[in-house]
Amino acid sequence: MTVFILRRVLQAILVLFITSLVVFLGVYAIGDPLEILLPADASMAERAQVAASLHLDDPLPLQYLNFITSALQGDFGRSFVYNRPALDVIFERLPATLELVTTSLILSLILGIPLGLIAGVKPGSVTDESIMTGSILGFSLPNFWQGMMLIMIFAVWLGWLPSTGRGETGYILGIRTSYATWDGFIHLLLPATNLALAQIALVIRLTRTGVQETMPLDFVKYARARGISERRILFVHVLKTILIPIVTVLGIEFGSLIAFAVVTETIFAWPGVGKLIIDSINMLDRPIVVAYILVIVAMFIVINLVVDVLYSLLDPRIRSRAS
Amino acid sequence: MRLTKTAVLAALLSTTWLMPAWAADLTIGRASEQSSIDPQFSRTGNNQMTSTMFFDRLVAFDENLQVSPGLAASWEIQDETTWLLHLREGVTFHDGSAFTAADVVYSLERADEVPNSPAPYTDMVSSLATVEAVDDLTVKITTNVPNPALMEDIGRVFIISKAAAEGKASEDFSSPATAVGTGPYVLEEWKPGETLTMHANDSYWGTVPEFNEVEIRYISNDAARVAALLSGAVDVIDAVPPQDVARLEGTDGTHVFSTPSGRVIYLGLSMRFDQAPAVTDLDGNPLAENPFKDARVRKAISLMIDRELIVDRILGGSGVPAGQLVPDALGGHNTDVPADKPDVAKAKELLAEAGYPEGFGLTLYSSNDRFPGDGDLVQALGQMLSRGGLKVNGVEALPYSVYSKAASAGDYGAFVFSLGSSTPTSAPNLQSLLHSYDKEAGKGAFNRVRFSSPEFDAALADALQEFDAETRIAKLEDATKLVFDETPIVPLYWQKVHWGLRDGLTIEAGLSEQTLPQKVTSAE
Lengths: 323, 524
Known about the structure:
heterodimer; A: about 325 residues; mainly alpha; MetI-like fold; two-stranded antiparallel ribbon; 14 helices; globular; B: about 525 residues; alpha+beta; D-Maltodextrin-Binding Protein, domain 2; Dipeptide-binding Protein, domain 3; twelve-stranded mixed β-sheet; four-stranded antiparallel β-sheet; signal (chain B)
């Protein structure tokens, strides 16, 4: 296990290094931040002053060298726009995104797994057909349009739920979160639902397939023969064995949701990292873009590692093979 | 017992979980966010807008950018390079301390020294030689060169409290303890990407704003911002997209306020090189000479464009046809320089005179995310120029972050660009857009087409030296007429901007495009 983790860490360092190089060159090629940052009536003197203070007039290899040396010391540069350390800006926004993504994952688990189990037990029944048809909608509606519809229906027409921002936040165990207040909680509902709909559909389908594959297996027959109730067979024995693919997919989805919750965050004005990165790309705020992508890559590496470890916890066969 | 338990539980819930949201008297949905509360960190429009809520300047700019006394109650010119400013009496900062000359000296000195500023106020204070406090309410200023526009220049610098800000970095201004100004509102909290909250300054020296508690929400998505107004979550929104104007007007409970902006959209025809990029003969081979160097060709292209049609069909009426740089609310606008009306016959005549009776080929370039309708605009232009007798080889629309760099590098022969106004007169825009490109002197910084006319340069320099305000404006008008006789660029239109408001509210807004809570009032 230790060797395994060590090897993973070395791979991670290599991946991070290559990413930093590619992203740095890519961002450098896009455009000139001075064109965006400077006001329309800026003079040449101001231009020169800004170029010098942001080190934009240094040759590219020198810029990269400076970046990588300070990055190794944990300093990813200062945002051009906010003049604050890039990592500070990112980590300030990350909790909001994590909160949104976690909520939508929880929603997808507590709705998706039971629905998938019900659909899988009696394939072809009316219940199964309706659940599966519903999940097609969840998959295929464009996220953007679906978000606008949620706003139109629940915020504009019915007036039940707020549609912008995080609302009142409070502190639970020192973490600033919308869960701490009622106002914050209802602000969370629409964006989390918007993000969760596709996930729910995914979980339903994975669960249903899993159930259909597992039900005919011998251990289910033995369980029945022992007189265990159908309900216990389904929710304990079958569920346990079908969790592996669900954990794998959700692990990867968790990463993608954090990295790409952009659309939902933009529509619902949710102050997370997705919105930050889009704004930063438009403003050519190079330090933020580079630092953000490195953070996301690091996060994916960690998630993959965690998923691997979870496997061995869920499946005794993998555990015994490893030892 | 049971009753008390329930009561305690209810009390607990009501104080923590069920606590109603903090209700503001006025909630504004704003499209863009400032990058810092430090009013001297960056002078982009967003930052100036936010700064105007908490800080004052030596002069006040109204919604159409015209100047009136601000923290400087009056000023006198002792000789061409010496000025005496008399500061307003009895003004206090948000923390209760008195506003004095020392704060002015400190603010002006700090203006060009803010570390890592992406858009510093350097130009505003570059003509200052010395700034000294004569007494508590008098400041004496000497300049390097005679600068008739001194008050417009240093008047743009926001005045901060020396005691509160000394030794602090820009990011410290996120705290009300450092962001101490004399402005109509007092900062409460800034949650980046989320909200900005403030309350009215009861001891404000000017008119105390009507709404006390104000919350600004940052909602960058156009559709979401409009939905927030429709759902009643916010009372006012800015930057209403043109296509939603009719809808907000038609909805019960909301209305729209529109005003022309100072942003001119123009077509640039590059005279930079001897061969214009992507300009070809009729067979598609590069043209040996640059046709845009001929003023008749530039005029012909201007005559091919139907500006009314563009405004009407592409912008849904959200524009005003333009024939020069600044609209008529600003100093230096010359009423004798109208927008060209389409006249294809005349255009063909001019082309023939210039030696292109059959026209030539060109490619048009534009951004596609910079201002409403920019991608559609360039396609319409393409059609109009083909109708006018040119061969349009293609139109290309790119994201602004990519486009702006290439446009400044001179990669495009014919390209659409825009320029906003943030000053009371056309002088700075004339200087940066149309003055001959001169890197040493720092003039013509945005002269991407490299137009050059020594007569215009001289006329502009003369106007800038003029101390008498009225004569200066007249000279700017003459210079405008002089330069636009040669069609240095092809102005298309000035944008209109829209605000959406809940019925019962009005907003004073204009060329400055600012959405300020102190300018929002209940309608009579």
